[in-house]
Amino acid sequence: MSANPTNPQDDADRIRLKRLAKLQGAVSSSPSPTPQLAGPSSPGPSFVPTPVRTPTPAKAAAAPSPKRQVETPVTPSPVPAKKKSPATPALLDIASWEDEVIGQIFNVTLNKDAAEKSGWEIVWLKHLAEELQSEVSDGPIPLSADIADRLLISRLELDPQTMTDDLDYLPVLASLPPSQTVFEYLVGCWRRLNNVKSSLTRKGYPPVQTQQAVAKLERVKDLIISYAGLSLQEPDMFPQPLGKPIGPIELVTPLLSLSSLSTPLLSGPTDSLLSPTEVEPFLQDLARRFEPDNEIDDVLGPVVHDLCFHPSLFRPEGLAGGDSSWRGVISGLEVLVGVKPIACMITRLPQWNPPLAKAHSFEFTSLFGPLLRLGVFSREWPSITHTYFSNPTDRRPGELESAIASLRGTLKSLQSSLFQIFNTLVRASAQSREAVLQYFARVISLNERRAGMQVDHTTVASDTFVVNLQAILFRFCEPFMDANYTKIDRIDKDYFAQSDRISLKDETRVNATAKEAEEWRQQQRSGEPKLQNFISDIFYLSLTLSHYGYLKAISSYEELQKEYGEMTRHAEMLEGDGSWRGSPLQARVESALNAVEQEKVRAMQLAYQTQLADPELVFRSINFTNFVSTWIIRFVDPKHKHPNPLVELPLPQEVPLEFRVQPEFMLEDVIDYHEFIMREAPQSLELSGKTEILIWVLTFLTSTWYIKNPFLKNKMIDVLSWGVVSYDGRRSILNTLVNTHPLALKHLVSALVHFYIEVEQTGAHSQFYDKFNARRSISYVFRAIWRNPDHRDALKRQARDNIEKFVRFVNLMINDVTYLMDESLSDMAKIHEIQTEMANAQEFARRPPQERREREGTLRGLERQAGIYVQLGNSTVALLKEFTAEIKEPFMVPEIVDRLAAMLDYNLDALVGPRCQDLKVQNPEKYKFNPRGLLSDLLEIFLNLSDQGEFARAVAADGRSYRKELFERAAAIARRRSLKSDDEIEKLRLFVVKVEETKATLEAEEDVGEIPDEYLDPLMYTLMRDPVTLPSSHAVLDRSTIKSHLLSDTTDPFNRVPLKLEDVIPNLELKARIDAFLAERRNKNTAYDTPAENIVNMDTDAD
């Protein structure tokens, strides 16, 4: 070396070498034998060493015979063939081979003539040759693994852009690839080394020599990989071409090119670019070299970061882009996580679960966030909605179905790949598994606000992100959701107390206070901490994410459905009205009728439907939901054996504390998803899931005390009604099951009766209206099972064995019919009034604009309300008709029969009396208003009870609404409209005759003159027959009055103190005075002066 003083170039060299000391030390510490520097060498890599072969002894030549003799051929006797001795393997001249392959791998030489002979394609390392020559006495310098690091550094320091005055060296610099980066050069070295190694193993050299040669190659490979990793980490350490991306992107590029469906970034493979088959072996070599001390984090961490945040993931077209470049990111990640050390490294990176990320930014800042947010929902990917679903009403159904199928196929590919990636991470190590679980838990903790009623979507994770994550968790659950539930008991029921992974601090419990829940949690944690198994972690994470994420995405979809429905109804109303045409409001109405916004909402709805109703996602969701429902029933089953055998119903009265303190959303989510799937994709339950839903509903409707929230129980009956009703051309999915399953045949009727009563008082501020919705659903279920004699027998047993409860049930049903019929018919009359006003267009137009708008607004409100009341009333009347046909006794008790008769008479008067003309409205079918059908049902109820004397007496005693003329007119309408047969009309006539006769008798018996106030019931203002005193308020009422009241409300009507019928005190002294009063004033004359056939005339013509 030169003895001149140091110069800046020397200083730079020393600094560079110092930075490489660690890498060089790692290579030099290899246990491979170190050959001597001097030795036979080749002047260039074109030299092919001649293998030294072991001389083979020549066969001894046979002595020539002086004379050839002719011999008679003799058949030779068989001689055993001699075994062929194996050929001696060729020997390898290690020194010559090493000199050749080192030059070939690095594409360098220390010999100028060899470089010049190759046309300068082989790089002559002039300065290193001079340096090495000065270190030896004489002779050529061989290339060997011992000087590989110096060869590599010397080659990497060459810069084709450097100017030089050395004319000998100018061709070397000029022949260097001008755009080749350090990493590309090292990849080429790595590839050539692998080719050499592959060729070596095929030569058949002695194993010892092959092993020695391979060891030398491994030393060189370690060196190459070390510098390759360094070039990714510090790309500016060696000279690089200008204007070309260097560093991590150089490895990202071949990773992106792995997918055959993504557009490659280069037109074809090059000598310096890793081919798809080389990427994984190269990553394996990098991982082996840099895994110790987690050096791999600094080397490949930036590569993973740049891959996961590739710009293609943030394009507006998302996964629907034409180049499908996102697939390249997926393929690259799949290869990366396939190398276990890299998989472990990924979960150690700060960006894996960024600590400072917020709910809305997590999917943009976490490593896998950009991939997980790929989807089709319109809020995150409006361009996809516009491209695939714009103007949906103008497009052919087949076109929309094709678009949905295409997007679903893409989503399936994305979610399958993402699951494989997460699954590989989970299996890589215990640490990476924990990191994945923490990732899921972090998403949940950040997005607790998603469960709120009013959510600002800019402050929480997107629907797309959480749905994709949910799809991954569903797949993780599949291994333990086997058909026989063999692993169900591995789920820890105390998980929420033992684990801090999920916080339930602000969650409502199933049936416990926050204080009770916290005390239970502290008690469970008092002993030794329990380590949770992976099954419990995944189960509860899936359960909780479904609440905060997946089901809220479904809520977004349902809100779009409501919005679209309201817009459609509003547009139809405006179109049908037409009074705005030619008025000052025309421009505003035409703007409201603009279909653009309506089309946009419909397109957004289709985008949500594409993913949420995807058959594969629905299938997994149903399996998970039904597994959860089975697990919950097993939880409360005293034997903890459900479903083998099935749970025994009803459940015990005492609710286990460990169940009461569970989060309410466990039950709510099961119910909500059942309701969603019943409405949107009931056909998905054809193969499996129907039985689990039925058992789930029956379990908690027969044991309602297990659930505190009345709305959850209301939803359960809604689920059942959706399952038994046919709509939109779909057949009912549960109809057959509710009529055949043993649990349904045994418990369904009693559960419906019980819940009909319980829903009367829910404690909610909206209980008055909530009960009607629940009872409408109950009526649908009753109608679905009524033809089954087993269910009718069950109702009879209910009425016989628990008469008090059943009477209360009947009383509430009559209350409902009374209110609903009164409201619906009243609304119809008001609608008739306004429509009559508006029919006179000229007169209506002369009214002030404000008045017209008010009347139009009133009409719209009435139309919405009337439709609801009419449907509820129809269903309840139909239920009453069915019950009175089958069971009569409960309807004849004193506290029921009078009110039933009064209700029927009143509504008959409304339908056929003088006010009936007020019920004629335009388009009655829009409100589901069918007066003929309603009249037929009312007459059917009269006929069902016509053989009951108490019912005839009650009708006769109804002084407010009963008139025989109403029945005459009703019979005429029924005959003319073929609502009833002649036999039925005759039966109705005989009933009215009985009523008239009873009425005459009652009038004669009850003609008692003026009645003292103290004898009158304070609520009903009727003469008391059996007065009783209430224990707390000391008010005096008739026993039938308070009994009727207690059927609906179990409190004293005067002070709201709880009251039972057995607590009332008979007022015997007052009863004696009333009886004496009646005895003195009773008229004994009872006359039947008119023949029976003349009492009622059923032949009157109806108008």
TrEMBL record:
<keyword id="KW-0963">Cytoplasm</keyword>
<dbReference type="Pfam" id="PF04564">
    <property type="entry name" value="U-box"/>
</dbReference>
<dbReference type="Pfam" id="PF10408">
    <property type="entry name" value="Ufd2P_core"/>
</dbReference>
<keyword id="KW-0833">Ubl conjugation pathway</keyword>
<dbReference type="InterPro" id="IPR003613">
    <property type="entry name" value="Ubox_domain"/>
</dbReference>
<dbReference type="InterPro" id="IPR045132">
    <property type="entry name" value="UBE4"/>
</dbReference>
<comment type="similarity">
    <text>Belongs to the ubiquitin conjugation factor E4 family.</text>
</comment>
<keyword id="KW-0808">Transferase</keyword>
<protein>
    <recommendedName>
        <fullName>U-box domain-containing protein</fullName>
    </recommendedName>
</protein>
<dbReference type="InterPro" id="IPR013083">
    <property type="entry name" value="Znf_RING/FYVE/PHD"/>
</dbReference>
<feature type="domain" description="U-box">
    <location>
        <begin position="1010"/>
        <end position="1084"/>
    </location>
</feature>
<keyword id="KW-0539">Nucleus</keyword>
<comment type="pathway">
    <text>Protein modification; protein ubiquitination.</text>
</comment>
<dbReference type="InterPro" id="IPR019474">
    <property type="entry name" value="Ub_conjug_fac_E4_core"/>
</dbReference>
<feature type="compositionally biased region" description="Low complexity">
    <location>
        <begin position="55"/>
        <end position="67"/>
    </location>
</feature>
<feature type="region of interest" description="Disordered">
    <location>
        <begin position="1"/>
        <end position="86"/>
    </location>
</feature>
<feature type="compositionally biased region" description="Pro residues">
    <location>
        <begin position="42"/>
        <end position="54"/>
    </location>
</feature>
